[in-house]
Amino acid sequence: ASASPFGSPLESGGVVRFGGVVPVAEAYGGADMGVSLEVGYHILAGRLGIEPRFATRFRAQDGPASTGGFAEVLFDLTAVHYLVNGPISPLVGGGLGVRYATASWLETRRDGQALQFVQEDRRTQSGWGLGGQIRTGVRFAMLAAVVDYNLNTVSIADRSVQQSVSFGIGVHF
């Protein structure tokens, strides 16, 4: 361990996190819960952790009657503060980065008064945008359980900001 500018040993290593993601407020075209997979490099100096990370979050489309599917790829820089020293510690933090998102959903249109015609069309939108998250969790030695509240500025389904809550268990090595 080398010395950090904070006067404590510098520790670093990889982190792999697996969990889920729940779109909030009809985000990603009203998609249901999906899967989250993250890979990062964690640098710890005292009680401050910095983690550049690559992540993907997705929900596969179930079929023609599905509410839809989505995929998100992100490159973030996350900072966390461990509230106590020791192998078990609550943590708080957040991060910013760039994100690519795509989603498909069914759009229903109704025409007519006495006789109504219903048409369902599958729509898809995608794009790049900025994103961020607020993080809370607990670290247990080499494991960390985290919950993130995420914002993504990619415009999908007439919503300029996509919101989600992701959660996962990560292994630090």
In terms of topology, how is this protein built?
Layout: E1 2-3, E2 9-24, H1 27-30, E3 34-45, E4 48-59, E5 69-82, E6 88-111, E7 117-140, E8 143-152, E9 162-172
Backbone shape: elongated
Strand arrangement, largest sheet? 2-3-4-5-6-7-8-9
- Number of β-strand runs: 9
- Uncertain spans: 1-7
Tell me the strand percentage band.
Answer: over 45%
Biggest β-sheet, characterized?
8 strands, antiparallel, barrel
Helical content band: under 10%
Tally the helices: 1
Chain-averaged pLDDT:
88
Task: Record keyword descriptors for this entry.
eight-stranded antiparallel barrel; 9 strands; disordered N terminus; 1 helix; 173 residues
Brief summary:
With 173 residues, this protein is mainly beta. The protein has 1 helix and 9 strands; from the N terminus they run ββαβββββββ.
Description:
The chain is elongated, with a radius of gyration of 20 Å. The chain has an eight-stranded antiparallel β-barrel. The chain has 173 residues and is mostly beta strands. The longest helix has 4 residues, at 27-30. The chain has one helix spanning 27-30; strands at residues 2-3, 9-24, 34-45, 48-59, 69-82, 88-111, 117-140, 143-152, 162-172. Helix content is 2%, strand content 72%. Mean pLDDT is 88; it is low at 1-7. It is built from one helix and nine strands.
